[in-house]
From TrEMBL:
The keyword Zinc-finger applies. It is a peripheral membrane protein. The keyword Metal-binding applies. One of its GO terms (cellular component) is late endosome membrane. This is Uncharacterized protein.
């Protein structure tokens, strides 16, 4: 688990297949929760970016329509 904290390229889901079937989720609970929080934040960031892009597109459409009316 310490290795995962030091290496930004690896995620918990990358190493889970290498553990035996007898390992319980309790061993990885903190890492899984952390990973889920990171994904949740990334999803929220993408939603915010989509919202900003949509607003920009609406402004551009309105400017184009106003330009065509002139």
């Amino acid at each position: 688990m310490q290795f995962l904290q030091r290496c930004e390229l690896l995620k918990i889901e990358d190493i889970l297949p290498f553990f035996s079937d007898f390992v319980t989720i309790d061993h990885f609970k903190d890492a899984i929760c952390s990973s889920l929080q990171e994904y949740n934040q990334h999803i929220q960031d993408l939603k915010d970016e989509i919202e900003d892009t949509t607003k920009s597109a609406e402004v551009l459409r309105k400017e184009i329509q106003d330009f065509r009316k002139k």
